[in-house]
């Protein structure tokens, strides 16, 4: 009986030793740091063997994985993050992620995935970050993201997306960041973003939108940043009056916008950063400028600005900004001001300041008008012509001096010596004249006789003394 108990103890100890040894094993060509395993050597075509069952982080980046099979990671049920980017994955089985319920971060970017099954990610409901960017997914269906109610960040950049079916993101109630940039989207419906009540940042840049109606965004009440740059947008409108209180950043640069709808900006009372660079704007309505009450940073360069006096309200508003003024704005018209900076041209309007100060905060477009102030073209051209002539004259003189110095050095040296000698002679003559004048003051010529001396002694008549020491008396 005692021997049997002793044998059981030995077996248990052996099993414990084997398990502890297995826990400490690390796959060949991998690097292990505690419960984190990094297999990024580029030789793996499948999941490496002997990965510890307590692994919490697994990186298989930069390998040659091609297919994710059913239950492929089920034995790693403690995984918290899994990196599979930069492989050759072209197919993902609907059961591939079953068994890793604790997974919170999944990176599958830079692969060749063209199709996703419905409920592919439903087995990982605790997922917080999902990166599917740089794949070949051309369409999103509601079932693709089913079950991801805790998802906070979703990356779908550069997939060639052409269509997003309505209510695709309905399950993503916790989503805060959504990147749909660098795709081929042409339109969005009002129910596209249904359910994204917590979304804070939305990227739609580098798509193929031609018009944007803010009517499709009213449910994004918590959105703070909207990126629409480098599309083909010609107009931005506001279909239904509503107020977007939390939007702080709007990027519309690199589009084809020609006019701004004041209603759009009147619905954005807390907008702080506005980028309108590289569009086709010629002017900004006074009502739109008046609506920029909270804007602190703005980009206006790269537009075709009309530099007539009607641009004065915009420039007056720019002077109120705390940040550096946008001095890179260039005039496109009228023809006499083409290529010049708007700041410089507006400075030549003598009455522009009066026009600006007389404008009301929110003027009525039917009553707002700007007097035509004649632009003094002739005076401006005369100043330029005079400056150019002076510059050419100075340049010619310097050129003559330089050529003379290079080709006739002896002549120049002789001229310098002659000039120095002439100055010395002139200085010597001046010194001699000064010395003679001083000596003459100290010399006195007079004839002494007794009568004169007697008169000086006996007579008491008024006398005056000169600076040279001689005495003059009245006779």
Automatic annotation (TrEMBL):
<keyword id="KW-0472">Membrane</keyword>
<keyword id="KW-0732">Signal</keyword>
<keyword id="KW-0812">Transmembrane</keyword>
<feature type="transmembrane region" description="Helical">
    <location>
        <begin position="383"/>
        <end position="405"/>
    </location>
</feature>
<feature type="signal peptide">
    <location>
        <begin position="1"/>
        <end position="22"/>
    </location>
</feature>
<dbReference type="InterPro" id="IPR003591">
    <property type="entry name" value="Leu-rich_rpt_typical-subtyp"/>
</dbReference>
<dbReference type="InterPro" id="IPR050333">
    <property type="entry name" value="SLRP"/>
</dbReference>
<dbReference type="InterPro" id="IPR001611">
    <property type="entry name" value="Leu-rich_rpt"/>
</dbReference>
<dbReference type="InterPro" id="IPR032675">
    <property type="entry name" value="LRR_dom_sf"/>
</dbReference>
<keyword id="KW-0677">Repeat</keyword>
<protein>
    <submittedName>
        <fullName>Leucine rich repeat transmembrane neuronal 4</fullName>
    </submittedName>
</protein>
<keyword id="KW-0433">Leucine-rich repeat</keyword>
<keyword id="KW-1133">Transmembrane helix</keyword>
<keyword id="KW-0325">Glycoprotein</keyword>
<dbReference type="Pfam" id="PF13855">
    <property type="entry name" value="LRR_8"/>
</dbReference>
């Amino acid at each position: 009986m005692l021997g049997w108990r002793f044998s059981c103890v030995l077996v248990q100890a052996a099993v414990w030793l084997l398990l502890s040894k297995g826990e400490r094993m690390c796959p060949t060509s991998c690097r292990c740091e505690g419960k984190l395993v990094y297999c990024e050597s580029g030789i793996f075509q499948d999941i490496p063997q002997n990965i510890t069952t307590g692994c919490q982080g697994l990186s298989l980046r930069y390998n040659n994985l091609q297919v994710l099979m059913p239950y492929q990671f089920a034995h790693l049920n403690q995984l918290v993050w899994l990196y599979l980017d930069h492989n050759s994955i072209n197919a993902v089985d609907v059961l591939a992620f079953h068994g890793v319920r604790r997974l919170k971060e999944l990176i599958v970017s830079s692969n060749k995935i063209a199709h996703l099954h419905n409920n592919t990610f439903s087995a990982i409901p605790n997922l917080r970050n999902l990166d599917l960017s740089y794949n070949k997914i051309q369409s999103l269906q509601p079932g693709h993201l089913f079950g991801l109610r805790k998802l906070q960040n979703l990356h779908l950049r550069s997939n060639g997306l052409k269509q997003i079916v309505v209510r695709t993101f309905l399950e993503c109630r916790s989503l805060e960041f959504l990147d749909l940039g660098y795709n081929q989207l042409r339109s969005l419906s009002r129910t596209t973003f249904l359910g994204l009540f917590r979304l804070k940042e939305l990227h739609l840049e580098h798509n193929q939108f031609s018009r944007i109606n803010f009517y499709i965004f009213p449910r994004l009440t918590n959105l703070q940043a909207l990126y629409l740059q480098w599309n083909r947008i010609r107009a931005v409108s506001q279909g239904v009056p509503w107020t977007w209180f939390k939007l702080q950043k709007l990027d519309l640069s690199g589009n084809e916008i020609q006019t701004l709808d004041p209603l759009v900006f009147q619905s954005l009372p807390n907008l702080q950063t506005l980028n309108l660079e590289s569009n086709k704007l010629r002017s900004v309505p006074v009502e739109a400028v008046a609506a920029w009450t909270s804007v602190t940073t703005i980009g206006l360069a790269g537009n075709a600005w009309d530099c007539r006096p009607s641009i004065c309200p915009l420039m007056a508003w720019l002077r109120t900004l705390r940040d550096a003024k946008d001095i890179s704005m260039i005039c496109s018209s009228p023809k006499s001001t083409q290529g010049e900076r708007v700041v410089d041209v507006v400075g030549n309007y003598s009455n522009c300041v009066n026009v600006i100060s007389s404008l009301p905060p929110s003027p009525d477009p039917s009553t707002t008008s700007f007097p035509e102030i004649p632009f003094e073209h002739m005076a401006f051209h005369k100043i330029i012509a005079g400056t150019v002539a002076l510059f050419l004259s100075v340049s010619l003189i310097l050129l003559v001096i330089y050529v003379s110095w290079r080709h006739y050095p002896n002549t120049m040296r002789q001229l310098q010596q002659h000039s120095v000698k002439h100055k010395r002679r002139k200085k010597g003559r001046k010194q001699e004249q000064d010395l003679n004048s001083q000596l003459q003051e100290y010399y006195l010529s007079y004839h002494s006789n007794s009568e004169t001396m007697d008169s000086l002694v006996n007579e008491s008549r008024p006398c005056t003394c000169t600076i040279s020491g001689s005495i003059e008396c009245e006779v």
